[in-house]
Specification:
The protein has about 450 residues and is mainly β. Helices cover about 10% and strands about 45% of the residues.
Length: about 450
């Protein structure tokens, strides 16, 4: 762990500013290239809690503390009119508590399922974005980690092709979206009922198309699925180090994830708001919960019934400014809950709501206070599968006294200097992994984040 921490601090002080070309071009004309770097360090732990029993995916009841570190170097270049190429090289090190098992609304969004005691690296993003202007009014586009500064038509078509996070484009929220700067819980960075296409690090290859108009946007995406649940995709054989020969895609025409999203922007009493409706359809070599329950095998084995099946669901995503520097948000999610969770979490139904407050009222305008609640649930047959000893991506205690998993998270993020921020975080988790015989769990966390 120390290796990457030292490296990230060295980079923070060695890089004092972005290139002069980037700064000069930002407000004058189209940026031809840019680069950014970010580092996030999280320490998270919980004291002992009550547990009548433990199983293969259970949080250890005696308490645990773990750390995670990520360091990204990102660059973009303008190729031709309307076209940009972007690359993101990431190193990571560390683990989530219990190696990212035991809670479905997992408390650390920076904890990958591929925990590692030594630095690992990968290209998380390598994509081309083509924007086609449709004329009319234009807007200024600021320099950002995956955007070159310039102007673009408000009415436009945008196509993205390559390796990316599906969350780069879909299910965004101004107040609960990024565990590096906002809420840390998985259920607050994405809709957990959406089994969104990704490898075990959170990235995949695909294409997306967006039609943007002044008050609405329509998006569609098609992405590749890994061959095995909660595993690496074929690109990881090339992009990840150390090399892992288990990385494989499912057959292109049989293993994929499709998603569409409609976004409507509006204003209430001069306060902006956005509502997004999402629908998805996945196909992969999934097992059936009902077939696993009906089998005489115990513990229930989900892989024994594997065949190419579909999984579908819907999501609703709301953000609304209610006063200057104060915003509220919510996500609702539903999936059919019949077939095996493949890439994200075991959650079939989710509801989240929260508030985010900037610190201008107490003379700390760059600080943020957040408070949010999460309700996660699973379908009846999914409950029966866990009760029969089955295991999922995150859950599986060998038995199940079912209850909704409930989480309350609050954090305070404060500016230290320029783009260096620190955060304190607390999460209360009732019925971890949907089990009333375990918990509650009290998770305490601290985060250091900087970017240039």
């Amino acid at each position: 762990m120390k290796t990457l921490v030292y490296l990230s601090f060295f980079a923070a002080f060695a890089i004092s500013a972005k290139s002069q070309e980037t700064i000069e071009n930002q407000d004058t004309h189209e940026q031809s290239w840019n680069w950014h770097v970010q580092n996030t360090d999280i320490v998270q732990g919980y004291p002992g809690f009550s547990a009548k029993y433990s199983g293969p995916n259970s949080l250890p009841p005696g308490g645990e503390t773990r750390e995670s570190v990520s360091l990204d170097l990102m660059a973009g270049i303008r190729l031709w009119r309307g076209a940009e190429a972007h690359i993101d090289g990431m190193m990571w090190q560390g683990f989530g508590v219990n190696n990212t098992h035991g809670v479905d609304g997992f408390p650390n969004g920076e904890a990958f399922r591929l925990g590692t005691g030594v630095p690992n690296g990968t290209l998380t993003r390598l994509f081309i974005r083509q924007t086609v202007g449709l004329g009319g009014e234009q807007k200024d586009v600021p320099d950002d980690q995956f955007t070159l500064a310039g102007k673009q038509d408000i009415s436009r078509l945008t196509f993205t092709l390559g390796r990316m996070s599906v969350k780069d484009i879909f299910d965004n929220n101004a107040y609960a979206n990024d565990p590096r700067t906002q809420f840390m819980n998985w259920a607050l960075m994405a809709n957990e009922a959406w089994d969104y296409p990704a490898d075990a690090i959170g990235y995949t290859t695909g294409l997306a198309a967006e039609l943007n108009q002044p008050q609405w946007t329509l998006r569609y995406g098609f992405f590749q699925m890994p061959r095995f649940s909660n595993s690496l995709t074929a690109e990881d054989r090339i992009f990840k180090w150390p090399y892992d020969n288990s990385a494989q895609d499912g057959p292109l025409l049989d293993a994929w994830g499709m998603v569409t999203e409609f976004e409507r922007r509006y204003s209430l009493n001069a306060h902006p708001g956005t509502i997004r409706f999402l629908a998805y359809l996945n196909r992969a070599n999934m097992g059936s919960y009902q077939a696993a329950v009906n089998s005489s095998t115990r513990p229930a084995n989900i892989t024994a019934s594997a065949e190419f099946r579909y999984k579908y669901g819907f999501g609703l995503n709301l953000e609304q400014e209610i006063a200057k520097n104060i915003g509220v948000f919510s996500r609702l999610g539903w999936s059919d809950g019949r077939n095996q969770a493949w890439v994200f979490s075991d959650v079939d139904y989710t509801a989240t709501a929260g508030i985010s407050v900037k610190g201008e009222a107490w003379q700390r305008p760059d600080d943020t206070f957040g408070l949010a609640g999460v309700l996660n649930s699973i379908s009846k047959v999914h409950q029966e599968f866990f009760a029969a000893g089955g295991t999922g991506i995150l859950a599986g205690d060998g038995n199940l006294n079912y209850g909704w998993e409930k989480t309350l998270e609050t954090y305070y993020d404060f500016k230290i200097w320029k783009t260096i921020h620190a955060s304190l975080d607390y999460q209360f988790i009732s019925n971890p992994a949907f089990n009333q015989d375990r918990g509650p769990v009290f998770v305490f966390g601290a985060r250091l984040h900087w970017n240039f």
